[in-house]
Amino acid sequence: MTDAGQILILAGRFDPTCDLVVEELNRRALPVFRADMSEFPLRLTLAASLSGSRWHGTLSNDRRTLDLASVRSVYYRRPTRPKFPQRMSPQARKVAETEARSGFGGLLSALPCRWLPPPGKAADAEYKPLQLRVAAEVGLSVPRTLITNDPDAARHFADSIGGPLVYKPFSPVRGTVHGETAAVYASIITADDLPHPDIGTTAHLFQEWVPKAHEVRLTAIDGRIFAAEIHADSDAGHVDWRSDYDSHTYEICEPPPEVATGVLRMLGRLGLPYGAFDFVVTPEGNWRFVEVNPSGQYGFIEQATGLAITAAICDYLEGNSQ
């Protein structure tokens, strides 16, 4: 079947956050075509040609056909990598994956529609050093930070801080250790832990430890802001709330005006319509920027607080901007 004004969703098959959006779009009777990059090229077929200044063609699976010219918006929600026939050699698979990214991905990015988020800008915004610089430029308070592979530099930084530091990976680190799933979260270290020879093996990020009254997950979409306090009732959750979801309680809050302004300015600078921001709030009530995720999850916040984040996302995808 082919529908006009469809919303294309590119996401992994198991994604509860994406499911919330699909359910709301269905409730609004908006046509949705959901696919994952992993379905290309074995279960997803593309055929498109350039006519004038626009691409025309179809994207098809065994159930539906999407008219590319009809796409009004794309929800890009962490799709997984393309999969190729097992008989392909590793060298051929590497070439095929590069061609799929440039051809299939490149064609979709050429469609004249709104994206949430735009993949290229989202990829750039994932870089923590860029985030921290832009956050400081727009007036958000950023903890003192060091990036280094020099163990002595890390010790000197710790001495200059005169208190505990936080080490955190630049991107999520998850895997399996002795058959058990494991992840690397933020951890507290002191000057006595430094210098450490492992620092020399790659880039490391260290920040001053900011005393916490609580943390805040602030979700911004198309100029609208939804903020919730996260109170973690465990030692591990107090250091990094992602490590212990079961210890959380949540409360809706309003960010200070300067924080709200800085958040929207930051998204504008990064070219993003959406961002999931994390802040530490000190006992004195000061908001300190931690990071922004251009495609961060929000479902757990909405479920706990009732904040209408899904509806705001669907308003954007539908084209109902403020």
- Named at the architecture level, the CATH assignment of the largest domain is 2-Layer Sandwich
In CATH, what is the class of the largest domain?
Alpha Beta
- Average predicted confidence as pLDDT: 90
Largest sheet: 5 strands, antiparallel
Give the uncertain stretches in residue-range form: none
CATH superfamily (homologous) name of the largest domain: ATP-grasp fold, B domain
Tell me the number of strands: 18
Strand order within the widest sheet? 16-15-14-17-18
Radius of gyration: 22 Å
The CATH topology of the largest domain turns out to be D-amino Acid Aminotransferase, Chain A, domain 1
Structure classification: alpha+beta
Considering DSSP H and I runs of 4 or more, what fraction of the residues is helical?
Answer: 25-40%
Euclidean distance between termini CA atoms: 32 Å
What overall geometry do the principal axes of the alpha carbons give? globular
Number of domains in the coordinates?
3
Number of helices: 9
Strand portion:
25-35%
Order of helices and strands: EHEEEEEHEHHEHEEEEEEEHEHEEHH
Characterize the structure shown:
It contains 9 helices and 18 strands. The strands form 5 sheets. The chain has a 5-stranded antiparallel sheet, sandwiched between helices. Strands 2-1-6-7 form a 4-stranded parallel sheet, covered by helices on one side. A 4-stranded antiparallel sheet has the order 8-13-9-12, covered by helices on one side. The chain has 322 residues and is α+β, with helices and mostly antiparallel strands. The protein has helices at residues 16-27, 90-109, 119-125, 128-137, 151-161, 235-239, 257-270, 299-305, 309-318, and strands at 6-11, 32-35, 45-51, 54-60, 65-67, 71-77, 114-116, 145-148, 165-168, 173-177, 180-184, 187-189, 204-208, 214-221, 224-232, 248-253, 274-281, 287-293. 30% of the residues lie in helices and 31% in strands.
